[in-house]
Automatic annotation (TrEMBL):
<feature type="transmembrane region" description="Helical">
    <location>
        <begin position="112"/>
        <end position="134"/>
    </location>
</feature>
<feature type="transmembrane region" description="Helical">
    <location>
        <begin position="233"/>
        <end position="255"/>
    </location>
</feature>
<keyword id="KW-0472">Membrane</keyword>
<feature type="transmembrane region" description="Helical">
    <location>
        <begin position="191"/>
        <end position="213"/>
    </location>
</feature>
<feature type="transmembrane region" description="Helical">
    <location>
        <begin position="368"/>
        <end position="396"/>
    </location>
</feature>
<feature type="transmembrane region" description="Helical">
    <location>
        <begin position="319"/>
        <end position="348"/>
    </location>
</feature>
<dbReference type="Pfam" id="PF00916">
    <property type="entry name" value="Sulfate_transp"/>
</dbReference>
<dbReference type="InterPro" id="IPR001902">
    <property type="entry name" value="SLC26A/SulP_fam"/>
</dbReference>
<keyword id="KW-1133">Transmembrane helix</keyword>
<feature type="domain" description="SLC26A/SulP transporter">
    <location>
        <begin position="7"/>
        <end position="374"/>
    </location>
</feature>
<dbReference type="InterPro" id="IPR011547">
    <property type="entry name" value="SLC26A/SulP_dom"/>
</dbReference>
<protein>
    <submittedName>
        <fullName>SulP family inorganic anion transporter</fullName>
    </submittedName>
</protein>
<feature type="transmembrane region" description="Helical">
    <location>
        <begin position="154"/>
        <end position="179"/>
    </location>
</feature>
<feature type="transmembrane region" description="Helical">
    <location>
        <begin position="78"/>
        <end position="100"/>
    </location>
</feature>
<keyword id="KW-0812">Transmembrane</keyword>
């Protein structure tokens, strides 16, 4: 025991994480449009491969709800055989970024963009899974999912099967919401497991006409990508999806690591090594044709709160997932799909920071606007384009705030008019600068003092030179320009 002083705590925590991870692994796989066992494979790799590596000692990896929408779209567009190629390429890119020590730079990504990304994913996830709650097929685009919901819900009330499915799903969400209010002894069973367990029991006892998980068997579900599938890498759309997978999975994992670090006082995350670990895990998942992985805050928080002290807990949780997948795969066939949809609706709702957005709007309206625009863009267009729009907005906002410019005009009534510019003169502030200069009297000489500028970009320099020429052409003395020495 001296060699493993925390084995007791880590063993207990690993069981809790396993019980939290099991329904989530299956739910994410089903929602992604792939065999349920592939979710378990990603969870196993997250424990046994990523879990053994250095980076963030208490963070737990597996298939994430945040990638569900992107994976579903990729499988629909490129087919299941291409999924392995996508995930393998994502892993290789993450390994390269970790080796080049780029992990720390993910901390520079605007928090509003990441929260907006997660909120957009959450909204699309909720909209899509509400269709699964009533046992019907969801439309393809995010806007169509939201627009079609009222009609789908009205139609559901005319079908016995849809009502049964809705009851199971709504009951699952109700259990998840109310679980934290129950006594501590009851809450030793993780909420997701209790919700799925009760839904499964209700469906069996009442013989409800609801769809259940299809079981293919662990070995039957694993499909390593064929050589033909690698030919898809010539597809520009596939390459764009790989970049989206890489950026989103990496950002989610490293932001999760920062959040987990705040939950415990143990060793801090080594970001570049964590990115290497995530890359290695995704490379293995890709080679097995499984789902992509990220660090998952729900499992990671459960791990810390259950008393985990070392990475042994997350490795052991992978062992328990492997034993379950190998010995009890047929248990999955009893799980109602609307129950898994309920879990993902609940998970999606947690991704939408409603309370945080209200306080953010009061304190930093620009950041709140970036969050909302990113989320809406993801729903209206797509994941990749939505994130790019959010990043572009964040860069423009930062550039705007960095372009502080102050202009002071001194006019003594006689002699030259003096104009002093200080701060950062960039193209973003050019209209303001030119408006002030063009308002100066045309029949008076001007002295333009630029010595107080810290930065003068090319666009501003050219515009100021053109203005000086125009002012001098009006028949007054040439504009005298003073620059910093």
């Amino acid at each position: 025991m001296t060699k493993f002083p925390h084995l007791k705590q880590d063993f207990a925590a690993s069981l809790v994480v396993f019980l939290v991870a099991l329904p989530l692994c299956v739910g994410v796989a089903v929602a992604s449009g792939v065999p349920a066992e592939l979710g378990l494979v990603t969870g196993i790799v997250g424990g046994l491969v990523t879990g053994l590596m250095r980076g963030s000692s208490l963070q737990v990896s597996g298939p994430a709800a945040g990638l569900t929408v992107l994976v579903f779209e990729a499988v629909r567009e490129f087919g299941l055989p291409a999924l392995g190629v996508l995930v393998l390429a994502t892993g290789v890119l993450q390994i390269a970024m970790g080796a080049l020590k780029l992990g720390r730079y993910f901390r520079a990504i605007s928090v509003s963009v990441v929260e907006g990304m997660l909120a957009g994913i959450g909204l699309v996830l909720i909209a899509g899974q509400l269709y699964s709650l009533i046992g019907t097929k969801a439309p393809e685009s995010g806007l169509a999912k939201i627009a079609g919901l009222p009609e789908a819900l009205v139609d559901a009330f005319g079908s016995t099967g849809a009502l049964a499915s809705l009851a199971v799903g709504a009951g699952t969400v109700a259990v998840l919401v109310g679980w934290k209010r129950l006594p501590a002894k009851v809450r030793t069973v993780p909420g997701p497991l209790a919700a799925v367990g009760l839904a499964t029991l209700a469906a069996l006892v009442l013989d409800l006409p609801v769809a259940t998980v299809e079981v293919h068997g662990l070995l039957g579900s694993i499909q390593p990508p064929s050589l033909d599938a690698f030919g898809e890498l010539a597809n520009v759309g596939l390459l764009g999806t790989i970049v989206a997978f890489t950026l989103i999975a990496s950002a989610e994992s490293l932001f999760s690591a920062a959040a987990v670090d705040r939950l415990h006082d143990g060793p801090r995350t080594e970001y570049d090594k964590e990115l290497l670990a995530q890359g290695a895990g995704n490379a293995v998942c890709g080679a097995l044709g499984a789902l992509p992985m990220t660090a998952v805050i729900v499992r990671s928080a459960a791990n810390v709160q259950a008393g985990a002290r070392t990475k042994a807990s997350r490795v052991l949780h992978g062992v328990w997932l492997l034993l379950f997948a190998a010995l009890l795969p047929n248990v999955l066939a009893y799980i109602p799909i609307p129950a898994l949809a309920g879990i993902l609706v609940h998970a999606g709702a947690k991704l939408v920071p409603v309370r945080g957005l209200v306080s953010l709007w009061r304190e930093h309206r620009g950041e709140a606007l970036i969050l909302v625009v990113t989320a809406v863009s993801i729903v209206a267009v797509s994941m990749f384009e939505g994130v790019l729009i959010g990043l572009a907005l964040a860069i423009v906002k930062t550039a705007w705030e960095a372009s502080h410019i102050r202009m002071e005009i001194v006019d003594k009534g006689a002699g030259p008019v003096q104009a002093y510019l200080s701060g950062n003169a960039t193209f973003l502030r050019l209209p303001k600068i030119l408006d002030s200069l063009e308002a100066l009297p045309q029949d008076r000489p001007v002295e333009l003092d630029l010595s107080g500028l810290h930065h003068l970009d090319h666009a501003c320099r050219t515009a100021l030179e053109n203005w000086a020429e125009r002012h001098s052409d009006a028949g007054t003395e040439p504009v005298r320009v003073t620059t910093a020495a």
